[in-house]
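Per-residue structure
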Amino acid sequence: MTSLRNWFNSLLERLNLGGRDLTVFILSLMLAFSIWLIYNLSLNYTGVVSVPVTAHSNIEGHAQVSSTTSAVVARCNTTGFKLIGLKHYSNHNVRDVFIASTDLHGDGGEDFHMTPDELVGYIGDIFGDGVRVESFISRNVKFRFPYENNKKVPVQPVQNLLFRSQFMARGGMKVEPDSVVIYGEPFHLEKIDRVLTRTISLSDLHTSAHGVVKIEPVAGVRMSETSVNYSLEVSRFVEIPTTVAVRVRNVPPGRELAVFPSTAEVVFHCTFPVTDNPTEDVVFYVDYKDFEESINGRCVARTSGMPEGVIDWRIDPQVFSCVEKGKK
Protein backbone atom coordinates (compact mmCIF):
# COMPACT_ATOMS: atom_id res chain seq x y z
CA MET A 1 0.00 0.00 0.00
CA THR A 2 2.90 2.33 0.87
CA SER A 3 4.63 1.59 -2.44
CA LEU A 4 1.44 2.38 -4.37
CA ARG A 5 1.11 5.69 -2.54
CA ASN A 6 4.76 6.50 -3.28
CA TRP A 7 4.22 5.62 -6.95
CA PHE A 8 1.16 7.92 -7.14
CA ASN A 9 3.08 10.80 -5.48
CA SER A 10 5.99 10.27 -7.83
CA LEU A 11 3.59 10.39 -10.81
CA LEU A 12 2.11 13.67 -9.56
CA GLU A 13 5.60 15.16 -9.14
CA ARG A 14 6.53 14.19 -12.69
CA LEU A 15 3.29 15.60 -14.07
CA ASN A 16 3.81 18.63 -11.84
CA LEU A 17 0.16 18.46 -10.68
CA GLY A 18 -1.12 19.98 -7.50
CA GLY A 19 -3.99 21.99 -6.07
CA ARG A 20 -6.61 22.83 -8.66
CA ASP A 21 -4.77 20.98 -11.45
CA LEU A 22 -4.95 17.78 -9.40
CA THR A 23 -8.72 18.12 -8.98
CA VAL A 24 -9.19 18.63 -12.72
CA PHE A 25 -6.97 15.64 -13.44
CA ILE A 26 -8.97 13.33 -11.13
CA LEU A 27 -12.30 14.53 -12.54
CA SER A 28 -11.04 13.99 -16.10
CA LEU A 29 -9.86 10.52 -15.18
CA MET A 30 -13.26 9.68 -13.68
CA LEU A 31 -15.08 11.09 -16.74
CA ALA A 32 -12.92 9.07 -19.09
CA PHE A 33 -13.61 5.91 -17.08
CA SER A 34 -17.36 6.62 -17.10
CA ILE A 35 -17.36 7.11 -20.87
CA TRP A 36 -15.40 3.90 -21.32
CA LEU A 37 -17.79 2.00 -19.04
CA ILE A 38 -20.94 3.36 -20.71
CA TYR A 39 -19.55 2.57 -24.14
CA ASN A 40 -18.70 -0.99 -23.23
CA LEU A 41 -22.00 -1.66 -21.46
CA SER A 42 -23.91 -0.35 -24.47
CA LEU A 43 -22.35 -3.05 -26.65
CA ASN A 44 -24.17 -6.36 -27.16
CA TYR A 45 -23.10 -9.42 -25.20
CA THR A 46 -24.33 -12.97 -24.89
CA GLY A 47 -25.02 -14.46 -21.51
CA VAL A 48 -27.14 -17.08 -19.76
CA VAL A 49 -30.14 -15.60 -17.96
CA SER A 50 -32.58 -17.37 -15.63
CA VAL A 51 -35.94 -15.65 -15.00
CA PRO A 52 -38.44 -17.10 -12.47
CA VAL A 53 -41.97 -17.08 -13.90
CA THR A 54 -45.41 -17.46 -12.36
CA ALA A 55 -47.97 -18.38 -15.03
CA HIS A 56 -51.47 -16.90 -15.34
CA SER A 57 -53.98 -18.62 -17.61
CA ASN A 58 -57.67 -19.40 -18.14
CA ILE A 59 -57.79 -23.19 -18.02
CA GLU A 60 -61.31 -24.44 -17.44
CA GLY A 61 -61.65 -26.10 -14.07
CA HIS A 62 -58.31 -24.81 -12.76
CA ALA A 63 -57.04 -21.85 -10.77
CA GLN A 64 -56.02 -18.79 -12.76
CA VAL A 65 -52.55 -18.53 -11.21
CA SER A 66 -50.04 -21.38 -11.04
CA SER A 67 -49.16 -22.56 -7.55
CA THR A 68 -45.56 -23.14 -8.63
CA THR A 69 -42.88 -20.90 -10.10
CA SER A 70 -40.57 -22.14 -12.86
CA ALA A 71 -37.26 -20.76 -14.05
CA VAL A 72 -37.00 -20.01 -17.77
CA VAL A 73 -33.30 -20.30 -18.66
CA ALA A 74 -32.03 -19.02 -22.01
CA ARG A 75 -28.90 -17.83 -23.77
CA CYS A 76 -29.69 -14.18 -24.48
CA ASN A 77 -28.03 -11.53 -26.60
CA THR A 78 -28.52 -7.92 -25.55
CA THR A 79 -26.68 -4.89 -24.20
CA GLY A 80 -24.52 -5.11 -21.13
CA PHE A 81 -26.93 -2.83 -19.32
CA LYS A 82 -29.86 -5.18 -19.94
CA LEU A 83 -27.87 -8.27 -19.00
CA ILE A 84 -26.93 -6.74 -15.65
CA GLY A 85 -30.51 -5.55 -15.12
CA LEU A 86 -31.98 -8.97 -15.97
CA LYS A 87 -29.67 -10.79 -13.59
CA HIS A 88 -30.41 -8.31 -10.81
CA TYR A 89 -34.19 -8.56 -11.47
CA SER A 90 -34.11 -12.36 -11.50
CA ASN A 91 -32.43 -12.46 -8.10
CA HIS A 92 -35.11 -10.34 -6.45
CA ASN A 93 -38.36 -10.70 -8.43
CA VAL A 94 -40.71 -13.18 -10.09
CA ARG A 95 -42.17 -12.38 -13.50
CA ASP A 96 -45.97 -12.75 -13.85
CA VAL A 97 -46.79 -13.85 -17.40
CA PHE A 98 -50.24 -14.48 -18.90
CA ILE A 99 -50.10 -17.62 -21.06
CA ALA A 100 -52.84 -18.71 -23.45
CA SER A 101 -54.34 -22.03 -22.40
CA THR A 102 -53.64 -23.38 -25.91
CA ASP A 103 -49.89 -22.98 -25.25
CA LEU A 104 -49.98 -25.20 -22.16
CA HIS A 105 -49.72 -28.97 -22.58
CA GLY A 106 -51.52 -31.06 -19.99
CA ASP A 107 -49.46 -33.71 -18.19
CA GLY A 108 -52.49 -35.08 -16.37
CA GLY A 109 -54.27 -33.66 -13.38
CA GLU A 110 -53.01 -30.26 -12.30
CA ASP A 111 -49.67 -30.37 -14.14
CA PHE A 112 -48.91 -28.54 -17.39
CA HIS A 113 -45.77 -27.70 -19.34
CA MET A 114 -44.46 -25.50 -22.15
CA THR A 115 -41.79 -26.30 -24.74
CA PRO A 116 -39.39 -23.83 -26.43
CA ASP A 117 -41.80 -23.70 -29.39
CA GLU A 118 -44.41 -22.01 -27.17
CA LEU A 119 -41.90 -20.00 -25.13
CA VAL A 120 -40.81 -18.14 -28.27
CA GLY A 121 -44.10 -16.24 -28.24
CA TYR A 122 -43.44 -14.89 -24.71
CA ILE A 123 -39.83 -13.69 -25.00
CA GLY A 124 -40.81 -10.05 -24.54
CA ASP A 125 -43.03 -10.85 -21.52
CA ILE A 126 -40.33 -12.92 -19.83
CA PHE A 127 -37.07 -11.15 -20.68
CA GLY A 128 -38.29 -7.70 -21.71
CA ASP A 129 -37.89 -5.68 -24.89
CA GLY A 130 -34.61 -5.54 -26.76
CA VAL A 131 -33.54 -9.07 -25.80
CA ARG A 132 -32.82 -11.70 -28.45
CA VAL A 133 -32.95 -15.31 -27.31
CA GLU A 134 -30.33 -17.40 -29.09
CA SER A 135 -31.54 -20.64 -27.53
CA PHE A 136 -33.59 -21.93 -24.63
CA ILE A 137 -31.67 -24.04 -22.15
CA SER A 138 -34.94 -24.97 -20.41
CA ARG A 139 -36.43 -27.75 -22.53
CA ASN A 140 -39.71 -28.01 -20.58
CA VAL A 141 -41.05 -25.35 -18.25
CA LYS A 142 -43.59 -26.84 -15.85
CA PHE A 143 -46.44 -25.24 -13.93
CA ARG A 144 -49.11 -26.56 -11.60
CA PHE A 145 -52.63 -25.13 -11.78
CA PRO A 146 -54.71 -26.49 -8.86
CA TYR A 147 -58.25 -27.65 -9.46
CA GLU A 148 -60.95 -25.14 -8.59
CA ASN A 149 -64.73 -25.44 -8.14
CA ASN A 150 -66.51 -24.05 -11.15
CA LYS A 151 -69.70 -24.05 -13.19
CA LYS A 152 -70.93 -22.50 -16.43
CA VAL A 153 -73.69 -19.88 -16.30
CA PRO A 154 -75.38 -17.73 -18.98
CA VAL A 155 -74.60 -14.05 -19.48
CA GLN A 156 -77.66 -11.81 -19.41
CA PRO A 157 -77.34 -8.39 -21.03
CA VAL A 158 -78.79 -5.48 -19.06
CA GLN A 159 -80.06 -2.89 -21.53
CA ASN A 160 -81.65 0.53 -21.67
CA LEU A 161 -82.65 1.10 -25.30
CA LEU A 162 -84.39 4.03 -26.95
CA PHE A 163 -85.37 3.75 -30.62
CA ARG A 164 -86.03 6.41 -33.18
CA SER A 165 -89.65 6.52 -34.31
CA GLN A 166 -90.59 3.63 -36.63
CA PHE A 167 -87.46 1.61 -35.67
CA MET A 168 -87.20 -1.43 -33.41
CA ALA A 169 -84.98 -4.38 -32.55
CA ARG A 170 -85.15 -7.37 -34.84
CA GLY A 171 -84.84 -10.12 -32.27
CA GLY A 172 -83.18 -9.75 -28.90
CA MET A 173 -79.71 -8.53 -28.04
CA LYS A 174 -77.03 -11.18 -28.51
CA VAL A 175 -73.83 -11.53 -26.51
CA GLU A 176 -70.69 -13.50 -27.39
CA PRO A 177 -69.74 -15.54 -25.48
CA ASP A 178 -73.25 -16.16 -24.18
CA SER A 179 -71.98 -18.02 -21.10
CA VAL A 180 -68.95 -17.93 -18.82
CA VAL A 181 -67.28 -20.27 -16.36
CA ILE A 182 -67.29 -18.98 -12.80
CA TYR A 183 -64.86 -20.15 -10.11
CA GLY A 184 -65.09 -19.98 -6.35
CA GLU A 185 -66.15 -21.69 -3.16
CA PRO A 186 -69.19 -24.00 -3.46
CA PHE A 187 -71.35 -21.83 -1.19
CA HIS A 188 -70.74 -18.90 -3.55
CA LEU A 189 -71.36 -20.84 -6.76
CA GLU A 190 -74.62 -22.47 -5.68
CA LYS A 191 -76.30 -19.06 -5.35
CA ILE A 192 -75.45 -17.93 -8.88
CA ASP A 193 -77.52 -19.03 -11.89
CA ARG A 194 -76.46 -16.21 -14.25
CA VAL A 195 -74.22 -13.17 -14.47
CA LEU A 196 -75.22 -9.69 -15.65
CA THR A 197 -73.50 -7.20 -17.88
CA ARG A 198 -73.19 -3.55 -16.99
CA THR A 199 -76.08 -1.53 -18.38
CA ILE A 200 -75.91 -1.06 -22.14
CA SER A 201 -77.49 2.36 -22.73
CA LEU A 202 -78.22 3.20 -26.37
CA SER A 203 -80.45 6.01 -27.65
CA ASP A 204 -81.84 7.16 -31.01
CA LEU A 205 -81.31 3.68 -32.41
CA HIS A 206 -81.97 3.52 -36.15
CA THR A 207 -79.12 1.25 -37.27
CA SER A 208 -77.77 -2.03 -35.93
CA ALA A 209 -75.46 -1.64 -32.95
CA HIS A 210 -72.53 -3.60 -31.55
CA GLY A 211 -69.78 -3.15 -28.98
CA VAL A 212 -68.06 -4.52 -25.90
CA VAL A 213 -69.49 -4.43 -22.38
CA LYS A 214 -67.99 -5.52 -19.08
CA ILE A 215 -69.60 -8.17 -16.89
CA GLU A 216 -70.61 -7.02 -13.42
CA PRO A 217 -68.16 -8.56 -10.93
CA VAL A 218 -69.53 -10.87 -8.24
CA ALA A 219 -67.95 -10.90 -4.79
CA GLY A 220 -65.97 -14.05 -4.05
CA VAL A 221 -66.15 -15.29 -7.64
CA ARG A 222 -63.70 -15.27 -10.54
CA MET A 223 -64.94 -15.48 -14.14
CA SER A 224 -63.37 -16.90 -17.28
CA GLU A 225 -64.30 -13.68 -19.11
CA THR A 226 -64.57 -10.13 -17.80
CA SER A 227 -66.35 -8.68 -20.84
CA VAL A 228 -68.49 -9.81 -23.79
CA ASN A 229 -69.31 -8.56 -27.27
CA TYR A 230 -72.90 -7.48 -27.81
CA SER A 231 -74.85 -6.99 -31.03
CA LEU A 232 -78.36 -5.76 -31.75
CA GLU A 233 -80.04 -5.84 -35.15
CA VAL A 234 -82.25 -2.79 -35.71
CA SER A 235 -84.79 -2.43 -38.54
CA ARG A 236 -87.24 0.15 -39.71
CA PHE A 237 -90.79 -1.17 -39.46
CA VAL A 238 -94.34 -0.49 -40.52
CA GLU A 239 -97.47 -1.48 -38.60
CA ILE A 240 -100.17 -3.57 -40.26
CA PRO A 241 -103.33 -3.98 -38.12
CA THR A 242 -105.89 -6.67 -38.94
CA THR A 243 -108.62 -8.84 -37.45
CA VAL A 244 -107.96 -12.58 -37.48
CA ALA A 245 -110.02 -15.68 -36.72
CA VAL A 246 -108.70 -17.91 -33.92
CA ARG A 247 -108.92 -21.56 -34.92
CA VAL A 248 -108.33 -24.87 -33.15
CA ARG A 249 -105.94 -27.70 -34.03
CA ASN A 250 -105.21 -31.27 -33.04
CA VAL A 251 -108.70 -31.87 -31.61
CA PRO A 252 -109.27 -35.65 -31.24
CA PRO A 253 -111.99 -37.25 -33.34
CA GLY A 254 -115.40 -37.06 -31.72
CA ARG A 255 -114.58 -33.92 -29.72
CA GLU A 256 -115.20 -30.26 -30.31
CA LEU A 257 -113.40 -27.25 -28.85
CA ALA A 258 -114.87 -23.75 -28.85
CA VAL A 259 -112.71 -20.62 -28.45
CA PHE A 260 -113.98 -17.34 -26.97
CA PRO A 261 -113.62 -14.82 -28.42
CA SER A 262 -113.32 -16.43 -31.83
CA THR A 263 -111.54 -13.39 -33.35
CA ALA A 264 -108.70 -11.13 -32.22
CA GLU A 265 -107.07 -7.84 -33.18
CA VAL A 266 -103.47 -8.28 -34.32
CA VAL A 267 -100.85 -5.63 -35.12
CA PHE A 268 -97.89 -6.85 -37.16
CA HIS A 269 -94.54 -5.04 -37.09
CA CYS A 270 -93.01 -5.72 -40.48
CA THR A 271 -89.60 -4.88 -41.92
CA PHE A 272 -89.71 -1.85 -44.21
CA PRO A 273 -90.39 -2.09 -47.12
CA VAL A 274 -93.11 -4.73 -46.84
CA THR A 275 -92.73 -7.51 -49.41
CA ASP A 276 -95.32 -10.00 -48.10
CA ASN A 277 -98.72 -9.32 -46.59
CA PRO A 278 -98.69 -11.25 -43.29
CA THR A 279 -102.48 -11.32 -43.13
CA GLU A 280 -102.71 -13.70 -46.11
CA ASP A 281 -100.91 -16.83 -44.84
CA VAL A 282 -100.52 -16.53 -41.07
CA VAL A 283 -102.84 -18.63 -38.90
CA PHE A 284 -103.65 -18.10 -35.21
CA TYR A 285 -104.91 -21.16 -33.34
CA VAL A 286 -105.32 -22.87 -29.99
CA ASP A 287 -103.74 -26.30 -29.70
CA TYR A 288 -105.93 -28.93 -28.01
CA LYS A 289 -102.92 -30.21 -26.05
CA ASP A 290 -102.53 -26.76 -24.43
CA PHE A 291 -106.21 -26.92 -23.47
CA GLU A 292 -105.74 -30.37 -21.88
CA GLU A 293 -102.77 -29.13 -19.83
CA SER A 294 -104.48 -25.91 -18.74
CA ILE A 295 -106.07 -25.61 -15.30
CA ASN A 296 -109.06 -23.42 -16.17
CA GLY A 297 -109.30 -23.75 -19.95
CA ARG A 298 -107.51 -20.46 -20.65
CA CYS A 299 -104.98 -20.75 -23.47
CA VAL A 300 -102.54 -18.59 -25.43
CA ALA A 301 -102.85 -18.62 -29.22
CA ARG A 302 -100.09 -20.13 -31.32
CA THR A 303 -99.16 -19.13 -34.88
CA SER A 304 -98.06 -20.81 -38.09
CA GLY A 305 -97.14 -19.52 -41.53
CA MET A 306 -95.63 -16.30 -40.17
CA PRO A 307 -93.78 -14.51 -43.03
CA GLU A 308 -90.04 -13.87 -42.65
CA GLY A 309 -90.48 -10.10 -42.84
CA VAL A 310 -92.49 -9.93 -39.59
CA ILE A 311 -90.29 -8.64 -36.76
CA ASP A 312 -92.90 -9.22 -34.09
CA TRP A 313 -96.63 -8.91 -33.43
CA ARG A 314 -99.07 -8.26 -30.63
CA ILE A 315 -102.52 -9.70 -30.17
CA ASP A 316 -105.57 -8.56 -28.21
CA PRO A 317 -106.79 -10.42 -26.23
CA GLN A 318 -103.66 -12.34 -25.24
CA VAL A 319 -105.54 -15.20 -23.55
CA PHE A 320 -108.62 -17.09 -24.83
CA SER A 321 -111.24 -19.07 -22.96
CA CYS A 322 -111.74 -22.57 -24.36
CA VAL A 323 -114.68 -24.89 -23.76
CA GLU A 324 -114.94 -28.53 -24.81
CA LYS A 325 -118.44 -29.20 -26.02
CA GLY A 326 -118.25 -32.92 -25.34
CA LYS A 327 -117.98 -36.26 -27.10
CA LYS A 328 -120.18 -37.24 -29.96
Notes: The longest strand covers residues 234-249.
